[in-house]
């Protein structure tokens, strides 16, 4: 497990960070996003999708639980599990079947942390009190497989 911290000054930097992160991702990688409404979770996802040529398709899956995107590289699954009661509801909809099929981006994924595979990246977004555009990110890799991603993010 490794943890790094980043400060993003605006939406443009959030999109750029999403693209940089996407350049490291492989099928079966899982990214968990945590933060208040409007903290930048969907904007980061937009950056990831933009890297794969899918930026025109982004929408928040708040009411659908999952949006599926199909890139030439692999499928990308964007979950919003905020409305689920617990991880058993995620299992009931077959959510864990997505983990090996492609890249999974899970907003509010801490709510299902008990069923996540051992290797994933958790990004916590905090809004800066003094500037509404600034986001502080705490990025933690769980398991050993993704530790190298954090090293490469900082380079």
**Which architecture name does CATH use?**
3-Layer(aba) Sandwich
Q: Remind me, CATH topology?
A: Rossmann fold
**Number of DSSP E strands:** 7
Count up the helices: 4
Kindly state the percentage of residues in helix.
Answer: 10-25%
Low-confidence stretches: none
Q: Classify the beta-strand content into a percent band.
A: 25-35%
Indicate the radius of gyration in whole angstroms: 14 Å
Helix and strand content put the structural class at alpha/beta
The coarse silhouette is globular
Q: What is the makeup of the main sheet?
A: 7 strands, mixed
CATH class: Alpha Beta
What is the string of helix and strand elements? EHEHEEHEEEH
Spatial sequence of strands, sheet with the most strands: 1-7-6-2-5-4-3
Mean pLDDT across residues: 90
CATH 4th-level superfamily: P-loop containing nucleotide triphosphate hydrolases
Distance from first to last alpha carbon: 18 Å
Describe this structure in words.
With 155 residues, the protein is of the alpha/beta class. It has a single domain (2-154), classed as 3-Layer(aba) Sandwich (Rossmann fold), CATH 3.40.50.300. Helix content is 24%, strand content 28%. The radius of gyration is 14 Å and the shape is globular. The two termini are 18 Å apart. The mean pLDDT is 90.
Summarize this structure briefly:
The chain has four helices and seven strands; from the N terminus they run E-H-E-H-E-E-H-E-E-E-H.
């Amino acid at each position: 497990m490794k943890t790094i911290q980043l400060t993003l000054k605006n939406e443009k930097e959030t999109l750029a960070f999403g693209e940089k992160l996407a350049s490291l991702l492989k099928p079966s990688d899982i990214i968990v996003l945590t933060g208040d409404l409007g903290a930048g979770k969907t904007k980061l996802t937009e950056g990831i999708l933009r890297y794969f040529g899918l930026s025109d398709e982004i929408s928040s899956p708040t009411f659908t639980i999952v949006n599926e995107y199909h890139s030439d590289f692999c499928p990308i699954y964007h979950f919003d599990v905020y409305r689920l009661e617990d991880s058993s509801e995620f299992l009931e909809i077959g959510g864990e079947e997505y983990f090996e099929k492609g890249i999974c981006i899970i907003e509010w994924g801490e709510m299902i942390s008990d069923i996540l595979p051992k290797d994933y990246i958790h990004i916590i977004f905090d809004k800066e009190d003094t500037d509404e555009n600034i986001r502080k990110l705490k990025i933690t890799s769980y398991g050993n497989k993704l530790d190298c991603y954090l090293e490469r993010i900082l380079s």
